[in-house]
Amino acid sequence: TRANRRPGWGYAVTNDYTGTALDGEIYALRLDGSRRVERYGRYRGVNNTYNDPPRAVPSPDGKRLVFASNWGSPTGPLQAYVLDLRPLCP
């Protein structure tokens, strides 16, 4: 989940809905212990199988992020989505 040309950041998705602050969100965390978080978007998903939960995969520069989701349909297809973060990331 690391972008090689954006060192110090890890990209993640919270795949549970237990009432925590980042439930169902796609975000990046600063890996230096500063607890800095960049929130990029939300997704809807039904996690019935191993492949159902989204996994954030950044481009090498961290300015685009791809994830797959069934978008809340337990029998629906997994589709790929791209978040264009260029307006948000330096």
Could you describe the 3D structure shown?
By secondary structure, this protein is mostly beta strands. The chain has strands at 9-13, 25-30, 37-42, 57-58, 64-69, 79-84. The protein has a three-stranded antiparallel β-sheet with strand order 1-2-3, with no helix packed on it. A hairpin with a 6-residue loop joins strand 2 and strand 3. The mean pLDDT is 84.
Written as H for each helix and E for each strand, in order along the chain, the element string is: EEEEEE
Helix content: under 10%
**Category by helix and strand content:** mainly beta
Strand order of the largest sheet: 1-2-3
Shape: globular
Distance between the ends: 18 Å
Counting DSSP E segments of at least 2 residues, the number of strands comes to 6
Query: If you average the pLDDT, what whole number results?
Result: 84
Task: Return residue spans where pLDDT drops below 50 for at least 5 consecutive residues.
Answer: none
Approximate strand percentage: 25-35%
Instruction: State the oligomer.
Output: single chain
Radius of gyration: 13 Å
Major sheet details: 3 strands, antiparallel
Number of helices: 0
